[in-house]
Amino acid sequence: MNKQPRQYTRFAGVGFKNPVVLASGTCGFGRELAEYFDIRRVGGLSSKGLIEHPVAGNDGIRIWETASGIMNSVGLENPGVRAFIDHECEWINSLGVVNIVNLGGHSEEDYIKGLYMLEAGQTQEPAAPKGPALGAVSPTGRPTGDGAPSVNLSSEQATATTDAAVSATIGDPTGNPSPGQATAVGPRFDILELNISCPNVKSGGMNFGVKTEVARPLVRACRAACHHPMVVKLSPNAEDIVGLARMCEEEGADGVSLTNTYLAMAIDIKSRKPVFNNVYAGLSGPAIKPISLRMTHQVCKAVGIPVMGLGGITTWQDAIEYIMAGATCVQVGTATFMKPDMCLDIIDGIERYMEENKIGSLDEIRGCV
Amino acid sequence: MGSIVCSKVSQGHIIENKALSKDFYLMKVDLGVGAGAPIRPGRFFMLRSWGTEPVLSRPISVFDADGATVSFLYKVVGRGTKLFSGLKPGDAITCDGPHGNGFPDNPAGDAAGVSAHDGTAGESGGGTTGDCGGDTTGDAAGVSAHDGKAGESGGGTTGDCAWDTTGDCTGDCAGDTTAKHIGRTKIAMVGGGVGIAPFYLACKVYRGLYPDMRLDVYLGFSDEGILIKEYMDVADKVTVNVGGFVTDDVDAAQYDAILTCGPEIMMRVLYQKYLASGSGAQFHVSMENRMACGIGACLVCTCKNKSGNKKACKDGPVFPGHEVFGFA
């Protein structure tokens, strides 16, 4: 296993051996990819998007190829948080990569129930969330060099009592990420990635993450229930993605990741019907990279919390672009379908680039544009 | 792109890539490795002969394999298969596989009284599979891998123009042309379009495992038959249907096992016919779903089966018929 201290990256108090993270939905829980390559070399792994309860997902066609991209309509198929805790979470921990749990929901209640399971290891009524551990929103050992973020605690959060003492995860600067945080009874993981791009059943299926003020109460409630570093994954379909990111910072998120997929469409001209049963589906891949890069740049300029950039990253050059735009970490998704170990090509490419250009730390180029 | 070091991925080279008809090609690939474990019929490879565009590799089922080489039957339906059709001997192709669960070692199961494992079965590991082929993933034109028309082109000239050149019965089962007879297991393999692919290797494998097994192959095509001579060489009986419904040619009641791969409508009709016949045969279906990763990570090829969601690429593509067609 290669040690790559040169690429060591801290994000929201968590140490990554390198900034490359496998994106949610494209790597399952890592088991299949681990049969192809040494998955321990990646910086982090964001789990298949979980919901509190198992979801069967959409009917009909779920994947469609486009020019330099793919559209997917999986419909949040997942085994549920309980199954993740029982069968997958420790496996990811055993890899020594940063364990990022991606959580979604169709209602605020789903999110809160899921968070309770993740934090307490058991189902609890969402009516009585006790508030966050302050340590989680204000970890010691904040990453340096990425803007020294200030975290605005809402009064609700600031006065919340701590019922599960959680100290922030501090990575081991030698390159091995720390094993994550342990709550009294919940599973061990490092970061919660909150997927707010799910359709909200209460607003006719509109994605939570389109309107900042629709997303705010959700982010606030999740912040209160989440004792781990929390990253909010933003939708590029947001009306104002910069405003959305600022809101996340205001509500105490430890970081944001962007972008999720773009709402898109394909029509079968033979049947004269949409390809997807849901009519619209999410576009990803190289086709979206320039747009997601632009959004990442805008958000990095606007917020103090660290950013994970993603959207079409296929080569190491793409990753460097995102880092130069200000991203602290990068996520690789669709490219994994081109080549299961594309993430390693990217890690190795970044390493060569740093060596050739005598770059000692990615901080030297991060946000240089 | 750097090469991947993994036993599943071979940097293969084209040995031969020939057009069989307007759209169908047979491509033989040198995997560049020594003879590996035998490949079970019905398994598939994710094939790729380009860089990052098109995005997805193409799941193509194995037509034939001898350890060092693998042959693929494919139909040009989209950008990926179009690129395959232009490959010349010596050209590189990345072969990731074999994947999935193929047809069982003993398709008739214990009911048929055939010993299930006679040595070779051990290779299995789990394996099995095969997608039935074609450009199931990202064909931009939206054409399904199996040529799709075999089942739908209804009006055609049905007729069961069976090319039954071998006769109903070969050698040892003299005269008994109808019902199953004691001691000899009868298997029907029903393929539509590019879905015929897995049955060539299936015949060879089953012949090796069970020399007495009766192997009947039914090939359905929308406009032009291909590889008929090749199937005749490995099967006891080959029935070809061009332009009609190959399912009309199958008498489900006389078989101990029925294996099918092709357009879903064709397989569904066959399953209904099988149910109606009261046949006690084992029924195995190779599902074709569009795939992305091909290894079970992305959940885009999910089949909603009787027992819950199944991954066509990993749990399948071969499933018991009652799992996929036995409800809803």
Q: Looking at CATH, which topology of chain A would you report?
A: TIM Barrel
In terms of quaternary structure, the protein is heterodimer
Number of helices of chain A: 11
CATH class of the domain at 144-325 in chain B: Alpha Beta
Give the percentage of residues in beta strands of chain B: 25-35%
How does this structure look, described?
- The complex is a heterodimer of chains A (369) and B (328).
- Chain A is α/β, with parallel strands linked by helices and 369 residues long.
- Chain A has a single domain (5-59, 76-261, 285-364), classed as TIM Barrel, CATH 3.20.20.
- Chain A has 11 helices and 16 strands.
- An 8-stranded parallel beta barrel of chain A has the order 3-4-7-8-9-10-15-16, surrounded by 7 helices. Chain A has a 4-stranded antiparallel beta sheet with strand order 5-6-14-11, with no helix packed on it.
- The longest helix of chain A is centred in the C-terminal third of the chain and has 15 residues, at 342-356.
- Chain A is globular.
- The two termini of chain A are 33 Å apart.
- In chain B, the strands form 3 sheets. Chain B has a 6-stranded antiparallel β-barrel. A 6-stranded mixed beta sheet of chain B has the order 9-8-7-10-11-14, sandwiched between helices.
- Chain B has a domain at 144-325: 3-Layer(aba) Sandwich (Rossmann fold).
- In chain B, a hairpin with a 4-residue loop joins strand 1 (9-19) and strand 2 (24-30).
- The termini of chain B are far apart.
- With 328 residues, chain B is an alpha/beta fold.
- Chain B has helices at 79-85, 149-152, 198-209, 228-234, 264-277, 321-325, and strands at 9-19, 24-30, 44-48, 58-65, 69-75, 92-99, 186-192, 214-221, 237-242, 257-261, 282-286, 302-305, 308-311, 318-320.
- Chain B is built from 6 helices and 14 strands.
- In chain B, 15% of the residues lie in helices and 27% in strands.
- The chains are: A alpha/beta (369), B alpha/beta (328).
